[in-house]
Structure formats: C-alpha cells, structure tokens
Specification:
With 404 residues, the protein is of the alpha+beta class. The protein has a domain of 165 residues: Aldehyde Oxidoreductase, domain 4, CATH 3.30.365.10. Helix content is 26%, strand content 28%. The chain is built from twelve helices and 15 strands. The protein has a seven-stranded mixed sheet, with helices on both faces. Strands 7-15-14-13-8 form a five-stranded mixed sheet, sandwiched between helices. Strands 4-2-6 form a three-stranded antiparallel sheet, with no helix packed on it. Strand 14, helix 10 and strand 15 form a beta-alpha-beta unit. The longest helix has 18 residues.
Amino acid sequence: MGQIGRPLRRKEDARFLTGAGQYVADAAAQLGAAHMRILRSPHGAALIRSIDTGTARALPGVLDVITGADLEKMGIGGLPCAWPVTSRDGSAMIHPRHPVLAVDRVLHVGDPLAAVVAETEAQADTAVETIEVDYAPLPCQTDLATALDPEAARVRSDIPTNRCFDWDLGDEAAVDAALAASPRVVTLDLIQNRVNASPMETRGTLGIYDRGHGDYTLWTSSQNPHSIRVTLSAATLKVPEEKLRVISPDVGGGFGMKIYHYSEEVLVLVAAKRTGRPVRWIASRLEAFQADTYARDHVTTVSLGLDEDGRFRAMKVHTLANMGAYLSTFAPSIPTFFYANPFPGPYALRDVYVHVEGVFTNTTPVDAYRGAGRPEATYVMERIVETAARELGMDPFEIRRMNA
C-alpha cells in the first residue's frame, strides 16, 4: 500500500541517456571476439545440391566455416517447439524438424545454411559471398489463404500436408444452432498482415568456450535467458545445464521477438569451441527482416448472430494462422490458447466457437509479439461489432454499451 499513489523513481534512465548501457556488442568488443556472418537462402524453397566452402576457407582472416552437415556430425539437435497443441480430432500437431543450419533444402528466404567466422566483419562478409551453393528452386507457397488448397505447393516434403494443426475451442453445434436461430447474422472476412518487431537493437549473440572446464557462456540479446539455457541443454547443444551460463545484458527492445531460441545462439557456441576464440554475431537490419520471427498473419472469417435490437446471441470464428516454414518456440500457442480464450472480450456473449488451422508456408516463422494473440482477437471482435452496428443502423457506442 505504501507505493500506491506515489511516484516511483526510474533507475535506468541516467546510464541509458548518457550512453552507458552495456549490450551484447559492447561485451564482444571488450573481449576482442571474432566475427560471424551467416549465409542465407535467396530462395523461398529450393533443394541444396551442393555447398562449396573451399574458397571461403582459404581467404585471409577466416577462422572457420560451418555447414549443416558439420553440425549433424557433431550431434547438434534441431530448434525445438516448446508448446505443442492437439488437433480437435485428438491427433498431435505436425512438428517437423527445424535444423540449426539447412542441410538438403531451404524453406524460406533467409533460411541459414552456412556460417563463417573471421577476424573482422569485413573478412567474414567477403567469405560468405564466396560460398558457392548449387540450388534447385522448388515451387513456393507464400500465400496463406490458398495454402490448404489441393493444388497448393507443398511447403515440406517430409509431411503430407501444409496443415500443422486443426484446433478449436467451444461447442460448434450449439453455436451453429444459435446462429441459425438469430434474426440477424453479420459475417466479415478479415486479413491481419504479418508484422516484424524491428527493435532498435537487432539480435546479437556472443559465444565463449572454456576448454579447461568444458563450460559454455552465451551472451544474448534475449528476453528469456532461462528458457534459452534449458533449450540449449536439452535440444540443440545437448550439454548439461551446469555447463551452460546464459547472460542477458541490456536489451534494446524485443517486443516478444527476443524470447525464442534462434540458430545463431547455437552457432556462436559451436564456433567458439571449434576456434578457441570468443565469437560474436550481430544481425544486420536486413537479417532482422529475413530471420527474426514475424507475428500475426491471419486470414479470418467471423460471424455474429444478433437479435433485431442488437443483442448478441452467438459468434463463430474461423482463422487460418500462418506458422511459416518451421515452428518457432511458442508458435502454436499464440493463435490457439492466447487468441481464442480472450473472445468475446468485454461483451456478454456465452456462445462462442473458435476454429483455428495452423498452416505452413514458405515464409519466416511466426510467433508472439506485443500482446501475443490477444490483439488479434480484439481486432476481430471489434471489427465485427462495428460492422454489425452499421448494418443494423445502430450507434456503435450504444451496441457496445448494451452488450457489455
């Protein structure tokens, strides 16, 4: 009670305003870390016939070149999805492998397939450009709305469909009956485009390996260092947790996008062990758009049943939710639990049914961002309420008030 109504003094402003913040890049500079750059796919979908790294390895300043085949030989695991969902028929969602570096095919523009470590950033950039990849481009499915059509290009050859899960919440039969009995039914098709968080500080990681004790230290611009430590230990690097220390220094914005486990966090640790040097990777702005998780990306049809006087009776929502080419750490939970449960928002509406189909496309993976599912639900709810008010010739404020 002593703090209620009292102004709280901010603790961080002075050092940030005077340039004294300490970020991953600052720690890397102090340690004289080597630089890592990532070779990323220019194709939305393609087979990898071959990767020739010979020229890159021979360039001045190059310390190491790592490919997906190298990681497989080392026993490095795939990036995990930590929040699976169950489809409405009781079956498990489809959870295909997400390699740290692509081996035989790339599935979206920006998919990583090799990493170069060099003394300077310029040397690393030059070396990446000399890696020769023989691609065989494949049909690419980037349109969410048509991804489940029979003639749609298959995003992944290792699964028989582009559908990841078919999930629902509520009693569909009861809602259908309530809609059929409603004097008025308003239906609306909505598209919520994908968005990129684009924080001021791009993602960055710094890997350190202690040969004497076999310990790893990861500095990462992360909102979730404890989760990163667990997933590194259990899924990707596969070393005991006590051999891992994860440090999250000052973070220059994240908005949810910096919660997840990314390839680069594994790669800098692998490279540090292979080279005996601290290794840093700081994303360019282009890489942020190619490789950071995106968010939203829904195609929705919503129907609202009303009485003639504007009282809500039932609502049915069907949403296609883009997962991208791989499942990010919490991706399936965002358009299901976090999206469906907030309906119907502040309104007195008992009969609600939400049906969500998670869909793979040849795009960057999608996960949580600023509100994580709740803003998407609010958008759908308020758009259908506004549309209903206009179709019934009612004041939008009044229809909201009477249904609150």
